[in-house]
Amino acid sequence: MSVQEMKNKSTVIGLTGGIACGKSMISAYLAQKGIPVIDGDLVARQIVEPGTKGLAQIVDTFGAEYLHADGTLNRAMLGSLVFADKEALQQLNAITKPLLLEAFKTQINALQAYPMIVLDVALLLEDHDYKELADQVWVVTVSPVQQLARLMKRNSYTAEEAQNRINAQMSNEERIQYADVVIDNNGTMSETIAQVERLLYNILIGIQ
Fold this sequence. Notes:
The chain has eleven helices and five strands. The protein is of the alpha/beta class.
């Protein structure tokens, strides 16, 4: 089934946003509402599990030192490398992108019984092929100051470590240019959820 054929059946919402902007909170809320969510982070972990082609390619490219003793990927160690080295990040993306696209398309196809599907992918807009999977793009935004503070607190990063990860991604200003919807997460959780509820209402009215 082609991407276009999939789109003719379900409305695919591409949910994205910078690291520590609150995308995961919104994704979890949508899942609680009974809307199927394809978690890009979860899929990214699955495609590099022991025995997968993805993990084998990572070892070939970066070396076995990026594995734990049990053979699983040392994600923290590899993350420290690629978020400080753009060339290494490009190499990693070249490995994971084809595998991610295949997995996303398979899951979208399997969820066609639902009127709405959420594709929760941080790098949705960094690559045209990811964006093409979505009918609408929802971008979650937060101020740079809040983003840095939240990331440092959440992951116990230094300011430099956190900023490196933020800088490795597309900026909020760039994301907004591609957005069909912008969700402002600078306020309270209740204020953010109220925005999401209005969006869901409008979509469901359109589907009916």
